[in-house]
Amino acid sequence: MCGIVGYVGKQQVTPLLLEGLSKLEYRGYDSAGVAVMTEHGIEVKKSKGRLSILSDMLDGGDALKGNMGIGHTRWATHGEPSDTNSHPHLSQSGKFAVVHNGIIENYMKLRTYLTQKGFTFLSETDTEVIAHLVEYYYEGDIVDTVIKVMNKVEGSYALGILCADQPDSFVAVRKESPLIVGLGEGENFIASDIPAILSHTRKVYFLENNEIVMLTADQVKVFNPDKEEVTKSVYTVDWDIHAAEKGGYEHFMFKEIMEQPRAIADTVKPRIKDGTIVLDDISLSDEYLKNIQKIYIVACGSAYHVGVVGKYVIEEMTRIPVEVSVASEFRYANPIVNERTLVVVISQSGETADTIAAMREAKRLGGRTFAIVNAVGSAIAREADDVLYTWAGPEIAVATTKAYSTQLNAIYMLSLYVAQRLSLIEPVKLAAYIKALEELPEKIEKLLENKGEIQYIASKYYNSKSVFFLGRSLDYAVALEGSLKLKEISYIHSEAYAAGELKHGTIALIEEGTVVVALCTVKSLFDKMLSNIKEVKARGAVVIAIAEEGHTEIEHEADHVIYVPKSNPLVMPSEVVVPLQLFSYYVSSLKGLDIDKPRNLAKSVTVE
Ligand code: F6R
Predict the structure, then answer these.
(1) Each residue's pLDDT tens digit, 243-281
(2) Of the residues 2, 163, 300, 520, which is catalytic?
(3) CA-CA distance, 395 to 66, in Å (whole number)?
(4) Coil, helix or strand at residue 46
(5) Measured from the CB, is residue 266 less than 6 Å from ligand 1?
């Protein structure tokens, strides 16, 4: 949420900032701005709307000359999207410019205090208090000033700060919001995320909470809040820059859907050795595993939906009770966690504020945390007791696809791993599951080849007002994801229901022409799903069914049938989700919507 980029070096900074912001626009896109150290001092240009508006305003970057600057792309929290509320914000005298990602929780108190001291506020943002506070405390040393500001503000922040007194250096600091430092030759960067700087350098520092960084073209110094210099280790990014680009596809979402076979193979194959699941970096002892009483899965949005699948799969394989909790509720539900509770947190970004908070609460209560994360070096990855990375590569589209799919596979592997370590699974069964995992990429490839059929179905129903997704057991878990995908990128009202539950009230909403997507891949429940399809058909629904190959009897009941290849039942969610992703994608595309950046949303929800 909100993207920050900063640069100091020898190149013209404005085009670099615009390029960096274009890679961060997925984090927020309601306004954008830059502050550049020009020969006249700090100059700010900012505008409501997409980055392209700012870019036009800046002549693609030619309009502001300088070799140091900071930029921002915003997802509004305090104050509507407007030119004035856009970042950067200037201090009263214009001596400081600030960009901010996060929320200053005590900003009202600080605003009142600063107003009494004679500061005038131009915007409704929480960020402007930082700009004025910096000016209020500044006595010539910017690092000292930042430390004083840190002691006053509560909340989360990643900040980039320019000071007019310092034409060759700038500072940045983070607490609970992500910020990395990019290390170049004769140039250095800050950014909210790696893609923003990857075309310039692969060497980065991941800043820890409360670390302050001072950057010049030739030097980067990191300090702790006691102003002691900190030695950081350099992390070298090993993924290809093209991984974060569209590569000829019209949308990131489509590219990421198509990348799923590769992403799953990268996540799974290196962890299968000699017919067993090998999780090299995981340090769960036999003693601990034997004593687990309960597993919690905690996550948000689509990652939570992975957890719902996870509950079925882990309980089936290990018989350890699993509770799935939405991360934003976990802390407030007085959760029952102790040293015999394994808390699995799932997150693509590794920076989701609610998930981080839930993970910390779980730790505080004595639980052991196990993270399934995509973003290397992210807060969750750093803080969890164990990390299982999903090797999906950078996911740029706001609506997740390949990260969800790799998270599912991470959950399958974790279940198998625990079952195998506790000798709960017969070798023949283990071999069958592993074979199913190995075969998934090829099966998904096959499903993706069928995209024309799904595009055709989408073309018939993209004007629907309401779409229901029904399923039972694992299909219900996937229905949740199918429904979220559709609503977030097509703005069509949609609900997911456990098929048996529909007749307890919601069936009242089914009328002539209502679209119902019926997931019917759980063999033991197939006949029950057929009955549910009949029930909605009798009330006028149009039914799009998803069934396993060979179950052709469904063609008598449904209006359209999409077949998925036969597979081991426990990995079936990985197949079923693919047509649902494609359906949402095509519906959104036919409606002419901004698929990669749906309204009101942002990737990486770093505020609570
Ligand atoms: C939906 C979507 C979100 C995320 C959720 C958690 O398509 O992408 O629901 O799944 O915001 O994000 P992470 O996984 O980064 O914690």
Answers:
(1) 778 888 999 999 999 999 999 999 999 999 999 999 988
(2) 2
(3) 32
(4) strand
(5) no
